[in-house]
Amino acid sequence: MDRTLIKSLRSTLQPVLPFDPPWLYRQRRGKKKLIDFACERLDIRSFADLGGVWGVDGEYTFYAMKRHKIKTAILVDINVTEPVVEKEREYPGLKLIRGNFGAEEVAQQIGNVDAVILFDVLLHQMNPDWDQILELYAKRTKCFLIFNPQFIASKSTVRLLDLGEEEYFRNIPHTKDEETYKAVFEKMYEIHPRPQYQQRRIYRDIHDIWQWGIVDDDLITKMKSLGFSMRYFRNHGRFNNLANFENHAFAFSK
Questions:
Q1: Listing from the earlier edge strand, what are the strands of the sheet with 46-50?
Q2: SS3 at position 213
Q3: How many CB atoms within 10 Å of residue 49?
Q4: Which residues of 59-90 are buried (b: 16+ CB within 10 A; e: fewer)?
Q5: Rounded to the nearest 5°, which phi and psi values hold at 181?
Q6: Who is most buried in 56, 87, 213, 224, counting CB within 10 A?
Q7: pTM for the full model?
Q8: What is the set of domains in the chain, with CATH numbers?
C-alpha cells in the first residue's frame, strides 16, 4: 500500500482506533484517566510535569491544559524538543524549564504547584534516588500523580543492576546491544563522558537506563511518611509484556 495513503488513513482513524500496541494504548489511556481524576476530584489548578518531554513531547502536559483548562503549568526536562517549543506558543501559561528535576536549583525554579506529575520517571532516578525525589517535592505540592512500571517479583524495592547482567536484561525492555546499555556493565564505575548529566556520573548512575524495581508497598509507605494518603490506584497491566513489571497509577494528596 502507498505510504502516503497509509499515513492518511492513520490520521483519519487515529481518534477512534488505537495504533499503539495494546499495552501502550492502556498506558496512555491510564495516564489521562489519572489526570482526569486529579483535576476533577482533587481540584488541581497548577502542576509541574517532571521529565514529561522524552518520548512523548509533552503529551500529558498539553492534554491536562487543554482538557481541564489548566492555566499554570511547568514542563521540565533536560532536553526540550522542537515540537514542544512550537506547541508552547498555544499555551501562554506554560513554562519550560531545561534541566534535571532532581537538582535543588531546578526545584526552586518550579516553586509551589498543586500537583507534581511523575510519569515513567521514578525508576530512572539516581543521586538523588526515587524516594529522595519525592522528599524534594513533598514540601512544594499537595498532590503527586505517579504512573510507573512497578516491580512485582519481590516484596521490597531492588536496584536492578544489583541483580547481575543476565537477570538485569531479563527484566527490562532493552538489550545489551543497544547503545545506551552496551557499556553499562563493562564500564560500570567509570565516569560517563556525556555532558548532559550536568554533573560527573558513573555509568551505573545515569538516568538513561532502568535503575529501580520499585514495589507498591515501599512507594505507599514513603508517601505516607511524607504526609500523603493514597486517593487513587489502578493497575493497567504489564509494561511491554515484561513478566515482572506492571503499570500502576497512583494519586496521593495531603
A1: 94-98, 72-77, 46-50, 115-119, 143-151, 245-253, 229-238
A2: strand
A3: 30
A4: bbbbbbbeebebeebbbbbbebeeebeebbee
A5: -105, -20
A6: 213
A7: 0.91
A8: 19-152+212-253 (3.40.50.150)
C-beta neighbour count of 222 within 10 angstroms: 19
Residues in the chain: 254
Fill in the amino acid letter for 139.
K
What percentage of the chain exceeds 90 in pLDDT? 87
Sign of the torsion angle spanned by Cα atoms 106, 120, 202, 130 = positive
pLDDT in tens, 35-47: 999 999 999 999 9
Which residue carries 500496541 as its cell?
A: 21
Pairing mode, strands 245-253 and 229-238:
antiparallel
DSSP state of 245: E
